[in-house]
Write a structure and sequence with these properties.
CATH superfamily of the largest domain: Alkaline Phosphatase, subunit A
CATH topology of the largest domain: Alkaline Phosphatase, subunit A
CATH class of the largest domain: Alpha Beta
Radius of gyration: 23 Å
Shape: globular
Largest sheet: 8 strands, mixed
C-alpha cells in the first residue's frame, strides 16, 4: 500500500514525476500532474464510488445508429466572452435606434445576408459556411455557458461531462506520435468522466512571425540524446512494473502513463516536430493569416490537422465587451477575426483539407440588445450565432434566426449548445446518444438533449 504525501500524492506519483523530470518530458511534468490530480479529485467528488477506469462505451439501444464520419478533424474556435451578435452576423437595421448597431451593412456571398462592414473578407467567403443564428440557452455566466458549449450538456453538480475534444480522441484515437487534442494556446475544456488521459495538450503560447516557435515537451533537453531518452524510458517502465500492483486501476496514474508515453513518442517523432513548425509554411500561406496572435493561432491549427491532430481548439479572448463594445470590435476584435477565419477556410481548401476538417467558430452567447452606460453590451444567452464549414457541412446556408429586434429566436426552431455538440459528433461519426459509464459505473448518455441540426449536412 502506498501512503499519500501531504499534498495527496502517493509515493509512486513522486517517483514518476522525478523520473519524467529527469527525462525532460515536460508534457507529463509536475504541472500536468497538478492539473490531472485536480481533475481526478473533482471527478471523485462529483461521482462517488470506487475509482476504476471508465467502462468501454456501448451503443444506446434506443438511439440512432452510428454514422460514417464526414470529418476526421475539428478546429473549434472559441470567441471567449461572447461576440455581439447584433454588431456582426445578426444585424437588425430596423431595430430601435438605442439598440441598433452603428456599423453599416455590406453584402456577403451568402445570398440575402448582409453583414457588418468590418467583416469584408469573411463576407467574401461566407458562401463556404453555414451560419447558425438564434443559438439559445439559459446560462448567463461565462463558466456555465462555456461548459455547456464545450460539452453539449447543461452543467450539473452530479456529473462532470467531457469536452468535445476529449470525446473525439476517446472515440477516434489517432497516431501515437502526435497529440490528439491540442489547445492553442490554452482552454478550459476538461475531460470530465473520461479521465485525465483525454485532457488537452496546451501549447501555452502562439507563434510569432519571424521567431522560432517552440512548445515545451517537444524539444530534447540540452545534452540528452534520443538513445538516452529510450534508456531512461526502460528504467521508468521497470519502476512502473514494481510499483503498479498497489495502484492498479488508478485513473490518474493511467492518465499520466499515457502522457509519458506520448511525450516520448512526440519527442522522437519527425511528424510531431513538423506539425508545430509553422516556419515550414510557405510565405504565401502564412501571410494570409496576418501577424496577430489570433491569425497565427489559426495558422498553427491548420498545420496541426494537416499532420494528424484530431481536435484543435483555438481560444480568442477579449469578446466580453461590457465596455466600449463598438470601438473594441472595430479596432481590436473584428479585423483579426475577419482575416483569420477567411484565411483558414481558404488555406484548408487549397490544401485539400476542408472537406475532412470541420471548422466551428462562435462564442458562448450573444450580447444584449440594449447598450449600457459604458457603451458596452452585456451577456445575452437568448441569442447567439455559430459558423460552421467543411467536414460534410452543406455550405451557403442560413439556419435558424432571431426576431426583428434580435432579442431571441424567431418562430423557427431554436438551436442549443446541445444541438451543436450533437452535430460535431455526427460529423466525426460518433453517435451523440452513445452511452458511457463514469468512474463509479453510472451510465451517462453523451448528449441526451441534443439533436443533429436539420439540413446542416449534405
Amino acid at each position: 500500500m502506498t501512503s499519500p504525501n501531504c499534498d495527496g500524492r502517493t509515493r509512486r506519483d513522486t517517483v514518476r514525476v522525478g523520473v519524467l523530470s529527469a527525462l525532460g518530458l515536460t508534457l507529463a511534468d509536475a504541472l500536468r500532474l497538478a492539473e490531472a490530480t485536480e481533475q481526478s479529485r473533482g471527478s471523485k467528488r462529483v461521482v462517488p464510488g470506487p475509482a476504476r477506469p471508465p467502462a468501454a462505451p456501448r451503443a444506446d439501444a434506443h438511439g440512432p445508429k452510428p454514422v460514417a464520419p464526414a470529418a476526421d478533424a475539428v478546429i473549434f474556435i472559441h470567441l471567449n466572452g461572447g461576440p455581439a451578435h447584433l454588431d456582426t452576423l445578426d444585424m437588425k437595421p430596423d431595430a430601435p435606434a438605442d439598440e441598433r448597431s452603428p456599423f453599416a451593412l455590406i453584402p456577403s456571398k451568402l445570398q440575402g445576408l448582409p453583414v457588418c462592414e468590418h467583416l469584408p473578407k469573411l463576407a467574401h467567403v461566407l458562401d463556404r459556411f453555414t451560419l447558425l443564428r438564434g443559438m439559445s440557452h439559459s446560462a448567463g455566466a461565462h463558466p456555465q455557458a462555456n461548459e455547456w458549449l464545450y460539452t453539449g450538456n447543461r452543467p450539473s453538480p452530479a456529473v462532470r461531462y467531457p469536452a468535445l475534444g476529449s470525446v473525439a480522441v476517446h472515440e477516434r484515437p489517432g497516431a501515437a506520435d502526435v497529440p490528439g487534442f491540442v489547445a492553442v494556446p490554452t482552454t478550459e475544456m476538461q475531460p470530465g468522466y473520461l479521465g485525465v488521459a483525454y485532457a488537452p495538450f496546451k501549447t501555452n503560447a502562439v507563434p510569432r512571425p519571424g521567431q522560432k516557435f517552440g512548445v515545451r515537451g517537444l524539444v530534447l533537453p540540452n545534452g540528452v540524446s534520443a538513445d538516452r531518452i529510450r534508456q531512461r524510458d526502460r528504467l521508468l517502465r521497470d519502476l512502473d512494473t514494481r510499483l503498479r500492483a498497489a495502484d492498479a486501476g488508478n485513473p490518474l496514474l493511467e492518465g499520466l502513463d499515457r502522457f509519458g508515453q506520448q511525450a516520448q513518442a512526440m519527442l522522437l517523432s519527425p511528424r510531431a516536430q513538423a506539425a508545430f513548425d509553422v516556419e515550414k509554411e510557405a510565405p504565401s500561406v502564412a501571410q494570409q493569416f496576418g501577424a496577430d496572435p489570433f491569425g497565427q493561432s489559426l495558422l498553427l491549427a491548420s498545420r496541426l490537422v494537416e499532420h494528424g491532430v484530431r481536435f484543435v481548439t483555438v481560444n480568442s479572448g477579449g469578446w466580453d465587451t461590457h465596455l466600449d463594445n463598438f470601438s473594441g470590435l472595430k479596432d481590436k476584435l473584428l479585423p483579426p477575426f475577419d482575416a483569420g477565419i477567411a484565411a483558414l477556410v481558404q488555406v484548408l481548401a487549397d490544401k485539400g483539407l476542408l472537406a475532412r476538417t470541420l471548422v466551428v467558430a462562435g462564442g458562448e452567447f450573444g450580447r444584449t440588445p440594449s447598450v449600457n452606460k459604458n457603451a458596452g453590451r452585456d451577456h445575452w444567452p437568448r441569442a447567439g450565432w455559430m459558423l460552421l464549414a467543411g467536414g460534410g457541412v452543406r455550405a451557403g446556408q442560413l439556419i435558424g434566426g432571431t426576431d426583428r429586434k434580435g432579442h431571441g429566436p424567431d418562430d423557427s426552431t431554436s438551436i442549443t449548445p446541445d444541438d451543436i455538440a450533437a452535430s460535431v459528433f455526427h460529423a466525426l461519426g460518433i453517435d451523440p446518444r452513445r452511452e458511457f459509464a463514469t468512474a463509479s459505473g453510472r451510465p451517462v448518455t453523451l448528449v441526451p438533449e441534443g439533436k443533429v441540426i436539420a439540413g446542416l449536412f449534405g
